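Async update (no meeting this week)

Hi team, since we skipped the sync, here's where things stand on the single-chain job. The sequence we agreed to prioritize is pasted below, unchanged from the tracker. I ran it this morning and attached the output directly underneath so nobody has to dig for it. Comments welcome in thread, and please keep replies under the output.
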Amino acid sequence: MTDETPQRWFVQLTNAPLADGGKINAITRDVATFRSEAAKAGLVYTERFTYSNLFNGLSIEIAPSQISTLRRLRGVTDVFPVVAIPIPETSALSDPELATALAMTGADIAQNDLGYTGAGIRVAVMDTGIDYDHPDLGGCFGPGCRVVTGWDFVGDAFNADSTSPSYNPNPVPDPDPDDCNGHGSHVAGIVGASAASSGGVTGVAPDVTFGAYRVFGCEGSTTADIMIAAMERAYTDKMQVLNMSIGSAFQWPQYPTAVAASRLASKGVVVVASIGNSGTSGLYAAGAPGLGEKVIGVASFDNTHVALNTFTISPDDTSIGYGPASGAPLPPTSGTSPMARTGTATTPDDACNALPADSLAGQVALVRRGTCSFYIKASNAQAAGAIAVVLYNNVAGRFSPTVAGTPAITVPVVAISDAEGVLIDSRLASGSVDMTWTDQFGTFLNPTGGLISSFSSYGLSPDLALKPDIGAPGGLIRSTYPLENGGYATISGTSMASPHVAGAAALLLQARPNTPPEAVRVLLQNSADPINWWGNPGLGFLDNVHRQGAGMLDIDDAILATTKIEPSKLALGESQAGPASRTLTIENSSNTAVTYDLSNVGALATGANTFTPSFFASFATASFSASSVTVPANGSATVNITITAPATPVSGMYGGYIVFTPQGGGAIYRVPYAGFIGDYQAAPILVPTANNFPWLAKLSGTSYFNQPAGATYTMVGDDIPYFLMHFDRQVRTMKMEIFDANTGKAWHLAFADRYLPRNSTSTAFFAYSWDGVTTQGNKTYVVPDGQYVMRLKVLKPLGNELSAADWEIWTSPVITIDRP
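Output:
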């Protein structure tokens, strides 16, 4: 089980920030009041950032035992955890083309046929910095350069990952936003690289001007408070588009980074953010700031092609594309060796057990993925004498393995597709096969090309808002990389999808100057193209709306669109109240009237289990106030729709698309919709898991120990009650109330919080402490020595505070307070 308790906190103060009409004098007084009240209360904390434009408050670092006191301070309206956000994991491969990804979205048409390049548009990239020396990114920094401005908020050595040996949470800002990691340069290249040579890359909007806002060190994690500081600077620098290929999973749209990003959009900046790489972590996993109400949250689709290093196999020199595994030496670029297989194309646990000594001596081992780790497979093959290992997939597509471990793997390890592995296996079954390493590259069809990426996070938002908003290519994308690291790399992630949309926004703003951020999202969503289900695209079912949003970005159609439909997405909420009715407004900016036929196309639903998605062909039905609608030239019309959710799966999520097809031909437009099947409040939050949470616990060192029979606490130092709980879904409100264990007398409120994330896995937990103090209104009470219980109450998302059925309640074992 994993402790996911935060150490740093946002402190939200009374008045509105400047972006919402607040006054600087009032904001300054709020901060002064907080510092004074914190000193009176004896809080020991480190102040990290103060904010005024997009958030009124501070971020601080404080001991968990003082959080209860912090929440009680006069002028503190809310407290949110400052989460650590890792640089999204990437794997670098060689790949000569970004062009296939541009073709997937129509960016090539927008550039070559329509003539738009993003010229004159200022795009902020909040990331690991930008290697502005790269010729494809302009080759310089400052006025007159492509990267015209920026700031390093952290310094090279910064790393907020407390589990890392290089942990260093102390930012050292400076004015040079150079990139020593690579992620930010890759993102910037997708937005707007302009190839300076035949081997270079061209991005979506190759003439944009960049602002580089570095929030990561050379490795590790950043924190959410640094992100808000960077947003405020991008606003001051008058950026028109902001890309954030980073985020915090399992959050609410009320999380500070999401709120700040939405405020930035309200001030005229198109804000685009990756929805997250938590596709294996189940439903309701979308991240902030992508969850923000006015933010364009972006899902990832796999690139249609991938170009890779190659080796050839006998007897006909068939070219096999491979990716090197991390944690192993790089493969050579020449040399021929015999191959041997350790199993067959159906072996489920190939090379998971020790292999006969010297059985692979002098040979390259072919090993099928499955059952055990890549490290175990490579280690067993190496121990049997293999001079290299070729891992092949056991499902369709390619993969990026790591064989890091102790002792280290000392032979090259590479990964190939399932089809290539089966081909080599079949040849080995009938005779000998030699393989030859080369220094050549080859372009290969990606079996999962055009489908949702396996890592792309699921929505919906905890308040059932429709997220993600749209998707773009993010799997296997080649772009710029720091020159010292080779200049180019192929990387996968929603990090790579988001800059496609940010670049598209720049093209749209060039084509349609002064388009407000909300209208940019409407145009992009209306023109997007939904994609079939990744699990079996041949069945013809559309993938979940709560995973792909409006579908694949189609930028040329968005630029050319003469029709706009609002709202551009429909969040239908829970279906227990019956069918949902909505009104859509269709605007026609052309000089000719258009008649649209209306239809409904369902997408697959998912089941109730949060952590293990299941899929159902359960579709909503829709009725319309008219089967077609005529929109006059330069005019508008409305249509009423009523959507009836499917009856099953109970507590699942459903979705689909309202389709507008023009009579006589032309561009088709769509509006996605999604909702929850049944009573959202019926889904449990406090799931016990195998550890039987919640716990009353004691803290010893860094470990918690369950106290099911009750426990005695001195209330000195860390000898205070801790409460451990697992949240299967996000929590709207949590309250901890104290009662005398013998008389039932109420001792008021120990703790209250709002908008809490869910746990990332089915066994993880959060820990909350109580310092022996309670509140009622403006009064505080030091609870005297005695015996007490804590009553935990959690309000479910969208729950009614006045409805007992919408709360879950747990009462702790007896807490004995015995101060020295």
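Quick observations from my side:
The CA atoms of residues 334 and 617 lie 50 Å apart.
The radius of gyration is 28 Å.
Reply here if anything looks off.
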